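Lecture 7 notes: from sequence to structure.

We start with a single chain of 274 residues. Read the sequence below before looking at the structure.
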Amino acid sequence: MIRPGAAMGGLLALPLMVFGLLVAGVVLALATQVAPAGLWQALRAEETLFALRFSLEVSAGAMCLAIPLGIASAYFMSRRDFPGKRFLDALLDLPLVMPPLIAGVGLLFLLGRQILGEPLARLGLELVFTPLGAVAAQAFIATPIIMRNAKAAFESVDPGFQETAMVLGLGPWRVFFQINLPLAGRSIAAGVILAWARTMGEFGATLMVAGATRLHTETLPVAVYLNLASGELGIAVSCALVLLAVCFGVLVCLRFLAAGRGVKKRSLTWPRSA
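Now the structure, written as C-alpha cells:
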C-alpha cells in the first residue's frame, strides 16, 4: 500500500526533476554547440583570455568601491532612525529592481560631459567608454546587494553585545570592528560573494557606460554578445561556459558558507576596555 505522504513526495519531486533537467539541458546545449577541439582552441584564444582577465580586474575594482560603500551604509541604516528613512531605504533598493540597461543609460547621462564628465575630466578621470566606466557601472549594481545583505546581518546581531561593549569602555569604531563586524561577518561575506558573481555577469549597464570595444572594454558577457553578432560561435560559447563555471563556483562557496553558519556559531571574545 502506498502511503499518502510518499505519493505526495513523489508528486512534489516531479517539478524539481523537470526544472533540474531544464537547467542541465541549457548547459549541455551550450557545451555541445562546438566540437571539443574547437572549444579548447576558443578557450585559449587571445580574446577569451582577455575577456576573462578584464572581467576579473573590473569586478575586483568594482568590489573595492562597493564593499566599503555597502557595509558603511548598511551599518548606519541598521543603527539609526531618522525622518525619511523608509523612503531612503526604498531608493537605495532601486538598483536591485532597475533593469541594468536603464541603469546604464542613467549612468551614461550622469557621467557624460554635460553633468559630471567635465569636472571629472579636470581631475584626470575619464569614465565613459573606458575601463573605469565598467568599474563604475558594476559598482553601482553591486553596492545595493552588499548593503541589503549587510543590513540584515547587522540587524540580526543582539544589541546587548554592543551595549555591553560600550559599558566596558569601547568607542564606536572599536565596537564596529571588534563586535558588530565579526558577528555579522559570515553573512556579509556571503553577500559580497553574491555581489561579485553579479558583477561578473553584468552586461547592460557595462555596455552602456563602457561600450563594447574588443580587447579594450570587453568583459565576458560583452565578448559573448560581440562574437554572437559576428558569427564567431566558438569564442561566444567558450566565454559563456567560463562565466557559467565561475558562477557555479560562487554558488558552491555560498552553500559552504551557509552550512558553516548553521553548524558552527562564531564565539565572541570580549576585548579589554580601553
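The chain has one domain: 35-258. Keep this in mind for problem set 3.
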